[in-house]
Inverse folding.
């Protein structure tokens, strides 16, 4: 066993209102430079939908992630020699048209237009060529199911779980249902972008597991873009370097939550530390599809177990980080309550961003009085949910519907219990019965309820001390640093020639 | 004039290529990149980049091989059939590379194209130099027959005399103008190397074939560390 710590995230999809505030906070902070206009390190997709870049989930097209061949993990992108052969032309690279051509408007025309019969119009201009352009698509063109025949109907997950007839029924107006899927880099335990990089420029930080691209080592070979199945590494066409979500590490290192999380209106985002066993990464990622989610939960270690704590300290995890791991909201959602699931575990990168699947739409029936009432057989309605469970399973459990139902039962039981408690129109015995069936205790429900609905900032974001001061002191003697170069210099300020 | 073109200029080009190349790599590593524009335009790039890279790499390797091992090259080219086959292969590769290069140039021409916007002056200069260089090379192969043989007796001794710091240019000064132009342009391209995106040539990531898949970097000392304090995850 080799204990390491990982800063991990949980997104509670039931609470996401799709407002894109996270995306804008990120854009304004990190990707407002030339070459990054089209990048959305954080984006929010409507599901069902084709996502951003479009159809990124179709790995038959992009060959992202890992596959198991003869019991061994291999990049779906191909062998190492194949990659080098394809280096002058990467056949699996999405182009700008798969994202969108970024644009702005000729606002000056609004002011400078001469007198006329019509209102002046600000024409759209490309942020790449500066020429006037026809806007054909944007990063969230499929928002709220707009353009369904192009986007939602072509969702690879939907195509996998529904035939044509079922899809036709699905898109009937009264039946329509959708939810939002906010995505950032998953900071995976078994990142395929790192493995695909020919230059070895992408790396995982040992202390906190944040995956970064060394801008100095990157040579622009673009294999990481194809290698990441989530398409969360982007190519900056201006600098010729790959860029990606940095989990706002400069903010984390100063004790602040990442910008996307800090600004989240629905309070759907949680951040905390997980301890995991680095020796079992490859073994875990090689499991059969059906065992992947459980195996990933298994590799996450119990931060309260004295044996684990001892080993963690011996492996160089700081006591303060262990303390943070014990208070981690992510540990609760992922491991203790088993409510949060990874996105597309079948890509085998062991993503460390987990999602609480949305319990939607409310599974209620219309009564004669015109009131929506909860199905008396509270769990039987899950099978007939408007958003089919097998769609969720295709997203979050590599197709295992039972696992999604287990999560749903817990979420539903929690709602029934709280309703019995606060509204009182459901008898408490029935609520207790629901809890029993979902294998939850009252105490657990109260805790889940608290963290989901009431938790304050400090409970949602348990940022471990990043201990940069310790790291720096171990590399450089601060006194030496002070006397040699003073503050503000990276390179030694030598006297000029 | 010949003295400048065939003695001073090659030395200037080589010294700058190595000196500036190393300086840039060490002090300005951020500026090293292949500067790919594939994300902006994909289709023409396929017909341009693949023929260009494969064609020119093989031709360059042939030049390099003959220069480094003239004896071996002479033996290989000794037979009539072998000479004919290799010359034809060379000409075919040159056409292949030229085709790719022309596609690459056309790709960057339209004033409203995305790639045009991501084109620097240096890209234009490079493409121009390459076009002339490949064209003269092809011209030599067709009109000054059996270049692969006389190359061994003219240019190769001159290269080696430059390496030995005892320049002998007699074998090259009497050659036709087109050949001399090809030589000088070759060194001009070497001169451009450290000042352009050509630096990506030396960054070809052969080490990828054996490096471990995962890279983990630690801040702390006292761990199992390799160069640059990277620990390899297994």
């Amino acid at each position: 066993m080799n204990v390491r710590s990982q800063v991990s995230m949980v997104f509670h999809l039931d609470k996401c209102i799709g407002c894109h505030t996270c995306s804008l906070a990120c854009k304004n902070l990190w990707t407002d430079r030339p070459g990054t206009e089209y990048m959305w390190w954080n984006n929010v997709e409507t599901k069902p939908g084709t996502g951003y870049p479009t159809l990124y989930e179709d790995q038959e097209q992009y060959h992202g992630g890992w596959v198991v061949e003869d019991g061994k993990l291999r990049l779906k992108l191909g062998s190492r020699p194949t990659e080098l052969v394809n280096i002058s032309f990467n056949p699996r690279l999405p182009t700008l048209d798969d994202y969108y051509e970024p644009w702005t408007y000729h606002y000056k025309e609004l002011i400078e237009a001469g007198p006329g019969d019509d209102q002046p119009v600000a024409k759209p201009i490309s942020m790449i060529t500066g020429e006037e352009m026809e806007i054909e698509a944007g990063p969230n063109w499929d928002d709220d199911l707009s353009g369904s025949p192009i986007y939602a109907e072509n969702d690879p997950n939907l195509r996998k779980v529904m035939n044509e007839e079922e899809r036709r029924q699905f898109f009937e107006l009264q039946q329509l249902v959708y939810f939002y899927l906010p995505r950032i880099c998953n900071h995976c335990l078994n990142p395929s972008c790192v493995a695909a990089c020919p230059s070895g420029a992408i790396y995982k930080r040992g202390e906190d597991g944040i995956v970064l691209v060394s801008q100095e080592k990157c040579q622009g070979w673009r294999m990481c873009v194809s290698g990441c199945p989530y398409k969360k590494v982007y190519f900056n066409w201006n600098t010729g370097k790959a860029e990606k979500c940095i989990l706002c590490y400069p903010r984390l290192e100063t004790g602040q939550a990442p910008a996307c999380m800090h600004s989240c209106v629905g309070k759907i985002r949680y951040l905390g530390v997980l301890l995991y066993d680095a020796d079992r990464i490859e073994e875990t990622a090689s499991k059969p599809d059906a065992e992947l989610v459980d195996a990933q939960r298994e590799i996450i270690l119990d931060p309260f177990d004295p044996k684990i704590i001892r080993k963690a300290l011996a492996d160089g995890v700081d006591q303060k980080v262990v303390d943070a791991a014990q208070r981690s909201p992510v540990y609760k959602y992922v491991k203790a309550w088993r409510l949060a699931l990874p996105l597309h575990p079948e890509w085998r990168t062991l993503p460390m961003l987990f999602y609480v699947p949305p319990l939607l739409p409310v599974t209620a029936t219309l009564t004669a009085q015109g009131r929506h009432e909860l199905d008396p057989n509270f769990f039987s309605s899950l099978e007939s949910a408007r958003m089919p469970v097998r769609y969720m399973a295709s997203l979050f459990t590599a197709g295992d519907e039972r696992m999604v139902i287990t999560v749903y039962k817990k979420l539903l039981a929690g709602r029934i219990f709280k309703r019995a408690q606060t509204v009182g129109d459901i008898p408490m015995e029935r609520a207790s019965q629901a809890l029993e069936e979902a294998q939850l205790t009252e105490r657990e429900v109260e805790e889940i309820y608290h963290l989901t609905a009431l938790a304050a900032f400090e409970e949602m974001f348990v940022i471990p001390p990043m201990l940069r001061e310790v790291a720096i002191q171990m590399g450089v003697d601060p006194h030496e640093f002070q006397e040699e170069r003073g503050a503000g210099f990276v390179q030694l300020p030598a006297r000029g020639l | 004039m010949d003295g400048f073109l065939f003695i001073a200029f090659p030395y200037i080009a080589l010294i700058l290529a190595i000196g500036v190349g190393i300086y840039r790599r060490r002090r300005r590593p951020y500026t090293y990149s292949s500067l790919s524009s594939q994300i902006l335009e994909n289709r023409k790039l396929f017909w341009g980049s693949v023929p260009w890279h494969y064609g020119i790499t093989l031709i360059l390797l042939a030049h390099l091989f003959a220069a480094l091992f003239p004896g071996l090259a002479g033996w290989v080219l000794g037979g009539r059939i072998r000479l004919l086959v290799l010359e034809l292969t060379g000409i075919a590769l040159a056409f292949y590379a030229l085709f790719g290069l022309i596609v690459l140039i056309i790709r960057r021409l339209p004033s409203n194209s995305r790639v045009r916007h991501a084109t620097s002056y240096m890209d234009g200069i490079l493409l121009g130099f390459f076009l002339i260089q490949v064209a003269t090379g092809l011209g030599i192969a067709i009109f000054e027959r059996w270049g692969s043989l006389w190359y061994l007796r003219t240019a190769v001794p001159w290269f080696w005399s430059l390496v030995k710091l005892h320049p002998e240019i007699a074998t090259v000064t009497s050659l036709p103008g087109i050949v001399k132009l090809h030589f000088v342009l070759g060194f001009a391209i070497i001169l451009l190397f450290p000042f352009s995106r050509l630096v990506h040539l030396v960054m070809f990531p052969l080490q990828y074939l054996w490096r471990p898949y995962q890279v983990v970097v630690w801040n702390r000392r006292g761990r199992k560390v390799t160069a640059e304090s990277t620990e390899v995850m297994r």
User: Anything to note?
Assistant: The CA atoms of residues 208 and 480 of chain A lie 27 Å apart.
